[in-house]
Amino acid sequence: MKQFIASVFLFFTVISTAMSHPADGIAVSSLKVEMLTNPEGIDVVNPKLSWKILAGPKETYQEAYQVLVATSPSLLSPDKADVWNSGKVSSEESINVSFDGEALEKDTKVYWKVKVWTNHGESDWSETAHWSFGLRYYKDWKGRWIGFDRAFPWEDISTFPTLGARYFRNEFDVNKEVKRATIYIMGLGLYELSLNGQKVGDAVLAPTPTDYTQNVKYNTYDVTAMLQGKAENAVGVMLGNGRYFTMRQNYKPYKIKNFGFPKLLVNLVIHYADGSKEVISTSDQWKGTADGPIRNNNEYDGEYYDANKEFPGWDSVGFDDSSWLQAEYVQEPRGNFEAQMNENMKVMREVAPISLEAIGGDRYILDMGQNMVGWLQMTVQGEKGDTVKLKFAESLQEDGELFMTNLRDAKVTDTYILKDDQQVSWEPRFTYHGFRFVEISGYPGTPKMEDFVGKMVYDDIKTVGQFDTSDPVLNQIYQNAWWGIAGNYKGMPVDCPQRNERQPWLGDRAVGAHGEFYMFDNARLYKKWLEDIRLAQKADGALPDVAPAYWRYYSDNMTWPGTYLMIAEMLYQQTGDISVIRENYPAMKRWLTYMADRYMNEDYIVTKDSYGDWVVPPPSIEAGTGQNADVKRPSALISTAYYYHFMEMMSEFATILDQQEDIPAYQHLKEKVHGGFKREFYQDGFYGDNKMTDNLLPLAFGMVPEGDRERVFDQVVETIEVKNRGHLSTGLIGTQWLMRTLSDFGRADLALKLATNTTFPSWGYMIENGATTIWELWHGNVAKPTMNSQNHTMLLGDLTVWFYEYLAGIKAGKDSPGFKTFELDPVFVEGLDRVKASFDSPYGTIGSHWERKGDQVIWKVQVPVNTTARVMLPPTATKEFTLNGETLPKGEVSITLGSGEYEFGF
């Protein structure tokens, strides 16, 4: 079970085997904390602690806890804990428990453990875990930033730059016995750190990307075991370009930010056994070079590696660096220095290719069988100077060649030049690709499939959800969604991984992030993204369409920037973390004031929109063939409906924060907008132009008068069933509210039809045409290739939310965020014979598995320890319900269950 940091959270896991009630005369077994990693270098004074109790008899609840925190594991006892002893605290809370000890000093490591009391007995103390407090203040950092703020003669920094990696090294003496050693590093744009010839950690493409004019993240590593005591040591750092040295230099500088040349700041803090301390920091005594094997690197164009330029042992003691340059002091980045609280990227999975075909000359096409994100590891043997090129693409042309047009000007090519006839295994360090197919050229001899391994790269976060049904189309859509969502986690949620864009567009994840939460342990990623959005806000209140704002897009609309509110609401509801509301509420308020001041007319219509219902499907495949999908259709109906929706959300936020004085203004404006919306857009039983999205939004937002709801909803149904012949016609905005609204109005059967369609337009149509991820366009197989990524997530809309919250019925309680109390309320829709889902919530695994057996439904549920489930029974006039074989009283509509596993029959 992974221990992790969620923004200001430390999250630890307590595992119990089988707790028994003391009255049974059976000893209560110990609770056990199992840690895979420990958080290093956080900069939060009062982190929050969490634990899970993963087993016990039915209806087990925590009644109290005690937390001990100390500077040494040997001090973790109630009478010795020198940092904090909470005492026995009567509380059911096992998540978001605030550390309330003495403020920790910089570069301090502490240890902690917990015991709990439940209604079934008392646990033993958990195993010991730890966290460390990093460098909170600017003045805590020693030394200076180093780098080379220039290009070298062999480098080109024109529009398509060829800037190689920078290599820096330093040797230092350790003359005393080491107690503890910690490295703090800011390596921009990307770094790989080594100590005494060994890579430190398993992160790749670190650190997490930010707008470096606003903030810069540092990473922390405990290197005690890697340091050689009473000996010479060497530290080495490779710097890649990343997002810092922009991938397109001097190209549209009015639009694309550039931050400068790669640079580095390192503090190695050594605590000695005699109580003294030493800091090894970057200075002009370090040596550096740009004349190494990585001759070029960036996300768009790939990595160029010349093995003839290698310098073996460069990061070890004794290397002759006399030909290297003295490191130069450079201007530090403008942003604040902050501990990185979200995970770095990592190679998360290896993928074996499924075919390798010759296509003429020395060229071969490798098929990975899956559209994936990452790179290839290649094993090769040849002669000095042999040059192998790996070019990446998502699909093939009819003649078997790579289809490159949809990648725009991204060169997406890795190049490796051999230095001798020895077999080598190589993979790039400072690039990644979105691809299924790879053209291999220049490979000496005949390549074999086993010479190549796909490395899938995304943020080091756990998959926490499982979903499976009796319908193979739904299952494949879910798998496609998993691959697309995971691959586009890059320290921020990017839109696509393959072309010359790869930007964190806000609109793509507005509702999708909600569904993703059931699939991935992504709370820290999305909390970091809220910070990116907040820091991108202009002084006047404007919010961007892209955050971090690598592209200066502030187009002023409600839907893209409004994702800011929707992500905050989702995180609060799913995790119970009130800080996501508290930290962002002032910025949200400024933005909504800004939009009203600039764009709300006297009739309370928000007149400004940018994108409309982005990428609605064309009326037919024929009509969309060869057509450009990059068409904006602004809609005041959409912008006004969203403003109403956000006023409702702001009222909820103000209530959560006890900002009662703000609520009357929100409610007043909400009612005014509602009135204006009805006058402007309501016709006789429909809204606007009677498009699906025009009617879906007021239905989803509760804007339709009660007496008109069925009439408006009937228009949605008629559009699907008659006009669209059983298909959707929504773009990015409408699809975010489609499946839930249909189900809420009693037509889950129609939602299921849309979800399982295999004809255009549908998710199944993508699959029928070879998709292994989700397309950017409903007609992505025929649209003009300038905008038809084959790995986007935005058109998932609310589909994955619907999978978990409707088909499986797992939903956080509205009045109990974080799943302390949650609902189990599936839609047992006709047309499905089985739905099996689970979700590792903050308290433990929630499971919902229902299956039809003849004319009976068997529904098995799992409720975690220390939670309560409100189970909703489906309405039926003819069947009786059983719970674990016992008949329930007639007329029962819901039942409350404590922890345990249960089986319903009806």
Automatic annotation (TrEMBL):
Alpha-L-rhamnosidase C-terminal domain segment(s): 809-881
MF-aspect GO terms: alpha-L-rhamnosidase activity
Enzyme class: hydrolase
Swiss-Prot/TrEMBL catalytic activity: Hydrolysis of terminal non-reducing alpha-L-rhamnose residues in alpha-L-rhamnosides
Statement: the UniProt record of this protein carries the keyword Ion transport: no
Domain annotation Bacterial alpha-L-rhamnosidase N-terminal: ranges: 176-348
Domain of life (superkingdom): Bacteria
Position of the signal peptide: 1-20
Source species of the chain: Echinicola strongylocentroti
Keywords: Hydrolase, Signal
Domain Alpha-L-rhamnosidase six-hairpin glycosidase span(s) in chain numbering: 463-806
Tagged with keyword Signal: yes
GO BP terms: carbohydrate metabolic process
TM annotation in the entry: none
Name of a matching Pfam family: Bac_rhamnosid_C
Protein name per the record: alpha-L-rhamnosidase
Sequence ranges assigned to domain Alpha-L-rhamnosidase concanavalin-like in this UniProt record: 360-457
EC number: 3.2.1.40
Cross-referenced PANTHER family: ALPHA-RHAMNOSIDASE (EUROFUNG), ALPHA-RHAMNOSIDASE (EUROFUNG)-RELATED
